[in-house]
Amino acid sequence: MAGQGDDDVKVLGTAASMFAIRVRMALHVNGVSYEYLEQDLFHKGELLLASNPVRKAVPVLIHAGRPVCESLAIVEYVDEVWAGAASLLPADPYDRAVARFWAAYIDDKAVPTWIGIMRAATEEDRAESLAGALAAVAPLEDAFAQCSSGKAFFAGDSIGYLDLVLGCNLFWIEALRHMFGITVIDAGRTPRLAAWAERFVETEAAKKAAPPMESMLEEAGKLRAMWAAAAAPAAK
């Protein structure tokens, strides 16, 4: 029910985690107050390890002392516990199944491609990863047309489940543009999706959860250094 227990909500995340951003946006959309606890994933603290002992990763939502892990599960939990005037997920069972399908597609197929862009050690590898990213994004143009029914967002007139699932990635996509001068959501290839992205980042939920670009670039630098160090022995 709306308003249930929203006085004891914590989010464990990092400023640059797209999945933590997803959770924070869901809470903002549903008007839930929460305490945000920034985590250092290079030196993980006791609360994170105790709250998510299996994955040892963010995000974690802690509600009334009980942890909920994995961003898609958390978003659905938020939607069920603090349902607002309209659910984040579509009301129709078929539309809800379609939204869950595309959410899984985004996390399983699209997200790894922009991580691949950032992880690439050479320009050739990066170009190959970018090609993969563009191919992964292409079906989302038609998915947007199907789900939005010609309206502003995947969910219609206001943002919903799929908007949050894809929208949390826009900050990393922008960071890739800063880092490498590349465009993943290209208005020439996917004009409707590009227009949606421009609208989404101007929503109140996106602005409240948006990380500073400096944090994104700093996190990217740490990750690239870690990947390079891990690959070094194999290169000898």
Automatic annotation (TrEMBL):
Catalytic activities: RX + glutathione = an S-substituted glutathione + a halide anion + H(+)
EC number: 2.5.1.18
Gene Ontology cellular component list: cytoplasm; cytosol
Residue stretches in coiled coil: none
Chief location bin: cytoplasm
The organism of origin for this protein: Triticum aestivum (Wheat)
Short name of any one Pfam family annotated for the protein: GST_N
Record's signal peptide: none
Cell compartment(s), UniProt: Cytoplasm, Cytosol
Protein name as annotated: Glutathione S-transferase
Residues covered by the GST N-terminal domain: 7-86
Lineage: Eukaryota, Viridiplantae, Streptophyta, Embryophyta, Tracheophyta
Domain GST C-terminal residues, every copy: 92-223
Record family assignment: Belongs to the GST superfamily. Tau family.
